[in-house]
Amino acid sequence: MPVSRPRDRRAHTVKAFASQVAGSVSDPGTGGAKPKLNFLGNEVDPFLVELCGIIVWVTEKEKYVTFGVDDSTSVAQCLVWRPASAAEAQVAKRAKWSREETQTLEEVARDRHGRLLSSELVLGAQVKVRGRVDSYLGRAQVKVASVCKVDDPNAETEHRMDAERLYRDVYTK
Amino acid sequence: HNVFSLVPPAPDLLALPHPLPPLPLCQAVGPPPPRGPMSIKHGEPRSVREVVCARSEDEVAQVGTRACALGDSVRIVGRLKTVLSVESVVLEDEGSEVEVDVSLSNPCRFKQGRQYQFIGELEDRRNSLGGGGAADATPILVARIARDVTGLDMALYRAGLKAQERCLREIEERSSGGR
């Protein structure tokens, strides 16, 4: 089964169910040690996953937005960071951007995040989420790389059939 | 010289009232309970017929694991038969009907004849579909999520759920067999 390793730029995104994500933190860890992740019985590094489900809760905080995706197996907690100031992120300094370019980048990021919150991250929306599964405070959490709303009601069914086929023919070979 | 006598006491701290009672001694407790949204359960997919036949926990054990108990979080799909009021609709599927309380769900336009999916909890209420006696009380789904799924292929949907169930069962057997 393909396992994402550190600096493995060829790691691909596995299609999974929310219960696999929620159950991937098998060993909570002791003494402040970071919990280990488990996927299909293998100990893995934080791995890329794709989920498809319905948003059942959304919580907005100052620096991030968390939401829960229910795909009828479990509710997976997902996290989207709010766009930080590009100047604070030192990106502009490293790339030696001008002040106008930095401001434009910040405006684009804020505008995109605003549209994401108003149109995609709404209760009852069916979404496809891609991100990296990691653990936080003993729970599995998906740090979202991309989320998009899917209007086709058969998208969940398609994801279920694909995940089952991939598990049978690819992930366990 | 007593060094400590040179240090005046902090009069502001002494004068401050203590609005809060003294804190109790810390006791060893387990991990904090799940907060708010993280305790929301996922909706188990069920048919309208299985929901309508929801019984008490004792009877669920006799009927089988597919039956629903009151308080369960379920997800159902069906065609909207009637809009009883702003807060209540009737869903039908395969000859069975169930009343759904949509007063707490996300805003959704309900139109007769379209397919909808609801995620919510089963409650025991006297419903509006008829019957007057205590024995006629049937479960009502108190929906927290409502979604228009007109165009959903029901046969493929059920096949997808079976494939998912099969896959998760194999994963569970594999992980328990490997221990």
How does this structure look, described?
The complex is a heterodimer of chains A (about 170) and B (about 180). In chain A, strand 3 (about 35-40) and strand 4 (about 40-45) form a beta hairpin. Chain A has one domain: OB fold (Dihydrolipoamide Acetyltransferase, E2P) (Beta Barrel). Chain A is built from four helices and nine strands, in the order E-H-E-E-E-E-E-E-H-H-E-E-H. Chain A is globular. In chain A, the strands form two sheets. Chain A has a five-stranded mixed barrel with strand order 5-6-7-9-8. A three-stranded antiparallel β-sheet of chain A has the order 2-3-4. Helix content of chain A is about 30%, strand content about 35%. Chain A has helices at about 20, 90-95, 100-120, 155-170, and strands spanning about 15, 25, 35-40, 40-45, 50-60, 65-70, 75-80, 125-135, 140-150. Chain A has about 170 residues and is of the alpha+beta class. With about 180 residues, chain B is an alpha/beta fold. Helices cover about 25% and strands about 25% of the residues of chain B. Chain B is built from five helices and six strands; from the N terminus they run H-H-E-H-H-E-E-E-E-E-H. Chain B has a five-stranded mixed beta barrel. The chains are: A alpha+beta (about 170), B alpha/beta (about 180). The interface between A and B is large, with 38 and 41 residues.
Which keywords apply here?
heterodimer, A: 173 residues, alpha+beta, OB fold (Dihydrolipoamide Acetyltransferase, E2P), five-stranded mixed barrel, three-stranded antiparallel β-sheet, B: 179 residues, alpha/beta
Element layout with pairings:
The complex is a heterodimer of chains A (173) and B (179).
Chain A: E1 14-15, H1 18-22, E2 25-27, E3 36-39, E4 42-44, E5 48-60, E6 64-70, E7 75-81, H2 91-95, H3 99-120, E8 126-136, E9 139-149, H4 155-171
Parallel strand pairs in A: 1-5, 7-9
Antiparallel strand pairs in A: 2-3, 3-4, 5-6, 5-8, 6-7, 8-9
Chain B: H1 3-6, H2 11-15, E1 44-45, H3 48-52, H4 57-63, E2 73-83, E3 88-93, E4 96-101, E5 115-124, E6 139-148, H5 154-177
Parallel strand pairs in B: 1-2, 4-6
Antiparallel strand pairs in B: 2-3, 2-5, 3-4, 5-6
GO molecular function (chain B): single-stranded DNA binding
Protein name (chain B): CST complex subunit TEN1
Pfam family, one (chain B): Ten1_2
